[in-house]
């Protein structure tokens, strides 16, 4: 492993000597059967370069990309919320009923979750945080088909 990153469940996450992080082979195989394309990568890995791109893109979203129109959306983050949920509900209208809070509150929650994941991706609580998020989503009624 060779990395200073510690995770509680090393059977799920592998970290290589170059810092790349991915799902263990056995865990990835177990998910591959149930994940729809394009999420069914045989060996999903996040390299340091991927991490840099994620952080760079997140900073661009905060600053406002060229798609952001201040006349239509108050802030770049509101634009993100509205675009994300609009696309989600167009592709799966039945999911709308799963969101009980206002979309403003839901959008703020989405932003908080993304900020947290981007911040802790190399931290010791990454796996437990992802597992807790998955558990909560199951309680909300999210299923494999979603």
Automatic annotation (TrEMBL):
It comes from the Eukaryota. One of its GO terms (molecular function) is heme binding. Transmembrane segments: none annotated. This is Globin family profile domain-containing protein.
């Amino acid at each position: 492993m060779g990395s200073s990153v510690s995770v509680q469940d090393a059977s799920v996450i592998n970290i290589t000597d170059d810092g790349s992080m991915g799902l263990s082979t056995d865990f990835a195989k177990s998910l591959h059967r149930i994940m729809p394309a394009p999420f069914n990568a045989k060996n999903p890995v996040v390299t340091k370069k991927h991490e840099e791109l994620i952080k760079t893109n997140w900073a661009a979203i905060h600053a406002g990309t060229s798609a952001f129109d201040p006349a239509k959306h108050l802030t770049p983050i509101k634009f993100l919320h509205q675009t994300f949920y609009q696309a989600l509900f167009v592709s799966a209208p039945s999911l709308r009923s799963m969101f009980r809070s206002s979309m403003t509150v839901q959008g703020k929650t989405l932003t908080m979750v993304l900020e947290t994941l981007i911040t802790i991706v190399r931290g010791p609580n990454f796996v437990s945080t992802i597992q807790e998020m998955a558990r909560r989503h199951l309680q909300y009624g999210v299923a494999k088909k979603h």
